Amino acid sequence: MSNQESANSETAKPEAADSDNRAPVLSVRRLSTCFRTDRGEVTAVDDVSFELSAGETLGIVGESGCGKSVTSKSIMRLLPKRNSFLKPQSEIMFDGQDLAKLSDREMRAIRGNRIAMIFQEPMTSLNPVFTVGWQLDEALKYHTKLNRTERWDRVIEMLDTVELPNPHRRALEYPHQLSGGMRQRVMIAMALCCDPEVLIADEPTTALDVTIQSQILRLMDNLKKKLNTAIILITHDLGVIAQSADRVLVMYAGRVVEMGSVHDIFHNPKHPYTEALLKSIPKAGPKNHGQKLPTIDGIVPSLYDLPIGCRFYDRCDHRQDLCMGTEPKLEQHVNDRTVRCHYPVGGEDS
Q: Would you call 118 exposed, middle or buried from its count of C-beta atoms within 10 A (0-12, 13-18, 19+)?
């Protein structure tokens, strides 16, 4: 999407997405999230902007501590008010409303209803003292006008939709009676029971084995196609991104360093950090047998002591003198790519 198209579609409502797939359901602009600590204020998410269209999956990747989960919780307004806040320029536009400016009551009407979230560890997100059916019923009771019988029918329908075996029985069981994969399916059912326009999945497959992980990703993809739900998929697993995402946003030290289509990111990375992440993926095949897996030396810089120039400078194999003292801007390149680098890999237009 060009800058001009983006500007023209910023306030478009979700219903317009069917006729114009470029119309954003969610538009995040200049999102900056700060935390108050004993050592002063730190900016965990710094000037992040992106758009999300109906039926699209946007993957957000990066190492631990890069700001992925803080970004998602900022959108959902789930960060504690006592020690966190959004900077005034932050905008989270959804259906003509700025979520950053809504009251808690107004946000509760949207959260879990029109924008839903799947958390990383379902065992800590589900209440252990209530059955999974009761917990789905509570979400429906709060956000819909269905009566008790209709709600219970919807509970069974959603558990069946997420391919939970024997949904009538499982609805009467407690979270500890289910496997990790089953609990994650319950979380997906809970997130989707009100037919949200946006689904945020924060590391939804991290604690699952490879087989169950594949099933969960396939399930999310099928539901996206069926309901035209827009998905933000947050993960550090590039294999998951390659399998599921349409576009990719790469974050480092709280900032966006690259954004583009999943094909362009994987086949022609422009930022040295993206390139390094891709090189660190294990590769199968005889020629790779016994080869040492490439790693990225060093660690993500502390938010209390960020470098003056490029935040990736100390770990970058392509660094030059300009990078040490001048922070690069996020600039548009060919094929709707945005890159924050003075010296993009392969040149600016390759």
A: buried
